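Thread title: Can someone regenerate the structure for this chain?

I was given the following input by a collaborator and told the matching structure tokens would be attached. They weren't. Posting the sequence so someone can regenerate them.
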Amino acid sequence: MVPPDDLDRLSHAELKGLVVQQWEQLVELQRMVAALRDEVARLKGGPGRPNIKPSGMERGTEPPGSSSKQRRPRGSTRSKLVIDEERTVKVAAPPRGSRFKDYRSFVVQDLVVHAHVVNFRRERWQTPDGEVMTAPLPAGIDGHFGPQLRRFVLAQYHQAQTTVPRLVTLLRSLRIFISKRQVVRLLIEAQDGFLTEARDVLRAGLSSATWITADDTGARHKASNGFCTQMGNAHFAWFGTTGSKSRLNFLELLRAGYDDYVINAEALAYMRERALAAHVIARLVEHPDKCFSNRKAWNAHLDALGVTALKVNPDPVLIATEGALWGSVKAHGLLPDTVIVSDDAGQFKIGSHGLCWVHAERLVHKLDAFTDDNRAAQATVRELIWEFYADLKAYRCAPTPQCKAALWARFDRIFTRKTGFVTLDRLLARLHANKSELLMVLDRPEIPLHTNGSENDIRCHVTRRKLSGGTRSDPGRDCRDAFLGLAKTCAKLKIAFWDYLGDRLVVPGAQAIPHLPEIILAKAQSP
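Best answer:
Regenerated them for you:
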């Protein structure tokens, strides 16, 4: 930072801002020096910086004896089993004079895994007019690998998180003659039914959810860095990998597969909220066309209105496009009165938005304190936040207007306090500016106070990334995201993913599983 020419001419507020800015730079330099010291120690074989554990605020604020800490009774295993075979084991040579008493049952669970090759001898008939008729293959047979094998491959890859080379080795050890290319084909080819159901899961979830959580993580696709976005709640999960994590990209994902751009009341309200110029909004309102089938048609419309030629800030093309995407989301009945809960990433701040308390407290937890006074102030603030968080959890179970007013006022007392720890005070002021989003739960007690659900869901994508790196083709990327989302959705709906695959692949004798979007809608409507 370059100092001003004349410090005497600066006002008191400017001098204070300068001191605070220099203090922050000093703290950052201290952090960099500490990091360099740790790196040098690590390279020399010494211990590096200790890994700070998570704060544990969510578990730490659970009331004593809560259900989450109690062990559930195991129950009878025998009652859950279906006996497939009974064998009688006889005593080899009972002594003379012995009398048969009864049988003692001993149940053993086992697994039968072996190759099963079927040769379908299809009849061929020649009709009187010379045409040849061939008997069709049974339902579920699509190619030279049967539905049970396809189910096994999909379950092992997407749910068991194995890799293609290991899967090929396993299949060959079972005397299945298959190549790596054929396994990849089983994973990504002819999966339109699953891709469609994954898209419909997102539409059902967004059209019926009172709240969703969202998160993203890094992803590699075609040797380029990208991002995988997760959306979901207690009934569904969905993943989508793209090259961007902007708000424009998130709005495109929220359309759930629709391609249109719509100018309606919600779109215009979005544009006004984002400070789009009034004359640009007027051009969009006055034009008779309000719906555009795809991006090409929308861009042509902006060109015709002269919006593209405008060079102002904020970018009118960007804001208008975001507004038209939001209009499309609302036009299709998605996110009707839905709260989006996120970790304060800017791209998720759309519509009714709530913030994650765990991420907010984590900012205080991770502050570097260099003096005893700073550490004491940090500990005091963390204790106040933990107590406040526990009371918010209690409020969700029994909301009252009196408790709401008390919590609203108590928030101000916590986040406007002055501790003398400059970095902490500035962080508290920043969190206080997000008061309405952090206290969204006071108006909507049904929403969660954190985004732990999204973070737990997205771990499967992180594991897949660590095991297999990135994807090389668009079908591979789409299938990976779709099957991860379907597996997570099945888990939330208490459906075995193995049974789901068996029904969709028409495995003989498989349990019937209803269409997942129908179950999600029914769950959302039930009290």
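Residues 209-348 form one domain.
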